Amino acid sequence: MDNIERSVQKVIELLERIPHNYVEITQRTPYYNMAATLTDSVLQAGMNYKSVVYPRVYSILSKYSDYRTTCDFIILFQTIPIEEIIQLKNKRKQDTICELAWFFYNCNINTEDDLAEWILDEGNAESLLDINGVGRKTVDYMKLLSGQQAIPIDRHMFQFLEKAGVLTSDYKEASKILRKTAALLEVGESVLDKAIWNYMSQNKSDVQLSIHDVYGDTLL
């Protein structure tokens, strides 16, 4: 048994000791609004979801419901300043959102369905890392937002692994362990992601709210 397999067994042992119900966790559905998807993808990194990200995503879904595609979004932020659309003055976040929109436009990715198919190619996913402000967590998060399976790894996932007796600070290793765990348990990666988040949010007073805590499993 190699180190990854031993780590997976430790995670499974912890999961067996904590309350969870995979059956009650459903696969999330996309926004079908690329302005909201890109804004959510970029803002979630390092920002409180409940107080910062959620209100802005909700506002986009409410105010700009007719601007659903990447092309629509580009037209929108060429007409209305991106700062006004996302209601945030952070220039780096603004630039990353716009750069992603142009990148996807040039790749003929116009909807979440296009993104869902495109991002499963490892080379395509890796190419996103060349964009300033996009890391591996953001890429995995975009997979979730497009309706695919993924487990975005953040500090709370690392804390969960540590609680299971798995000590790693490497994103790829942590991702491999949790993805193999999901496969062995025969549950979707997004389902395992939610189950772990449920546990961590109930047992860690300092856990920052995630999209799961605000939206549940269905989106607006």
Task: Write structural notes for this entry.
With 220 residues, this protein is mostly helical. Helices cover 63% and strands 0% of the residues. It is built from 13 helices and no strands. The chain has helices spanning 3-17, 34-43, 49-63, 70-79, 82-86, 91-106, 112-118, 122-127, 136-145, 155-163, 171-185, 189-203, 211-215. Helix 4 packs across helix 6. The longest helix is centred in the middle third of the chain and has 16 residues, at 91-106. The termini are far apart. Residues 205-220 have low confidence and may be disordered.
Low-confidence stretches: 205-220
Amount of helix: 55-70%
Query: Could you state the order of secondary-structure elements as H and E?
Result: HHHHHHHHHHHHH
Which structural category do the helix and sheet elements fall into? mainly alpha
Outline? elongated
Distance between the termini: 44 Å
Rg calc = 18 Å
Task: Report mean pLDDT, rounded to a whole number.
Answer: 89
Largest sheet: none
List the helices and strands and how they pair.
Layout: H1 3-17, H2 34-43, H3 49-63, H4 70-79, H5 82-86, H6 91-106, H7 112-118, H8 122-127, H9 136-145, H10 155-163, H11 171-185, H12 189-203, H13 211-215
